[in-house]
Amino acid sequence: MTRATSKVAIVTGASRGIGAAIARRLARDGRKVIVNYSGSADAAAMLVDEIESEGGQAIACQADVSDPQAVRRMFDAAEAAYGGADALVNNAGIMKLAPVATTDDAMFDQMIAINLKGTFNGLREAANRLRDGGRIVSFSSSVVGLYQPAYGAYAATKAAVEALTHILAKELGPRGITVNAVAPGPVATALFLDGKDQATIDRIKQMNPLGRLGEVDDIARVVSLLLGPDGAWINGQVVRANGGVI
Ligand code: NAP
């Protein structure tokens, strides 16, 4: 285990995918972790068991990030279990793809509610409740830059997350809290793989200079850096972790 600067970390959307890898990594770094999930209670509980079996500390916490009251309760849970929170990783997100012409209102509203309002709910709560010297990492995407067709509404939510990141870094700097975003390229999780055939996946791999998809641990390492002592001078940045695709 390495020595952690931020002792208690809340990771949203940590039941599966990138968030689960982040929770595992932060626990190995020596942090106490709040494993947030929306619906996957069993997966979150199994991850907590796994962390504890390796000597780490974690609790599972159900909260739909689009609900501000639920996000408040998630911070309450961190305070009740561990006395407070030092880091928030705003990882929870969804991706629905469609050209602008056929993006329906429900699809648009759902991505705004979870990706943008959900991230905002976490940022606002963190701004009020993280301890001084804390860390915030939110999730954008390299589609902000790649701008492929069909990613319009999704990319718009992530561009908004980037704007919030730059501004909150300036607001929280005086308290020694850093605020960054990570913008992965394609990572092999359900969010990316679902609905894509093998030919499409192979084509996307070939677009990457390193010839593969990202793995969840590629991204967890970046978050670990941003939360740890070696990341202390990185603030107000969007870190594209994507193997060089853009
Ligand atoms: P994923 O495998 O689909 O996992 C999504 C996670 O978010 C799950 O733990 C899910 O919890 C949680 N979640 C969804 N809606 C939620 C809500 N309303 N409240 C709380 N938690 C919620 O996705 P992923 O690929 O790991 O993506 C993680 C983040 O990286 C997202 O912000 C995504 O936009 C971003 N990203 C991913 C890629 C990629 O290629 N995978 C690329 C760029 C950026 P439940 O299981 O409980 O529903």
Annotate the secondary structure layout.
Blueprint: E1 8-11, H1 17-28, E2 32-37, H2 41-53, E3 57-62, H3 68-82, E4 87-90, H4 105-129, E5 135-139, H5 143-146, H6 152-172, E6 178-184, H7 190-193, H8 198-207, H9 216-227, E7 238-241
Parallel strand pairs: 1-2, 1-4, 2-3, 4-5, 5-6, 6-7
Helix pairs in contact: 1-2, 1-9, 3-4, 4-6
Short recap of the structure:
The protein is of the alpha/beta class.
Describe the overall structure.
This protein has helices at 17-28, 41-53, 68-82, 105-129, 143-146, 152-172, 190-193, 198-207, 216-227, and strands spanning 8-11, 32-37, 57-62, 87-90, 135-139, 178-184, 238-241. It is globular. A seven-stranded parallel sheet has the order 3-2-1-4-5-6-7, with helices on both faces. The two termini are 33 Å apart. It has 246 residues and is an alpha/beta fold. The longest helix is centred in the middle third of the chain and has 25 residues, at 105-129. α3 runs parallel beside α4 (105-129) and α4 packs parallel to α6. The protein has a single domain, classed as Rossmann fold (3-Layer(aba) Sandwich). It has nine helices and seven strands; from the N terminus they run βαβαβαβαβααβαααβ. The structure holds NADP nicotinamide-adenine-dinucleotide phosphate (NAP). Residues 12-19, 36-40, 64-66, 91-95, 114, 118, 139, 141, 184, 186-187, 189-192 line the site of NADP nicotinamide-adenine-dinucleotide phosphate. Belongs to the short-chain dehydrogenases/reductases (SDR) family. Keywords: Oxidoreductase. This is SDR family oxidoreductase. It holds the Pfam family adh_short_C2. Residues 7-185 form the Ketoreductase domain.
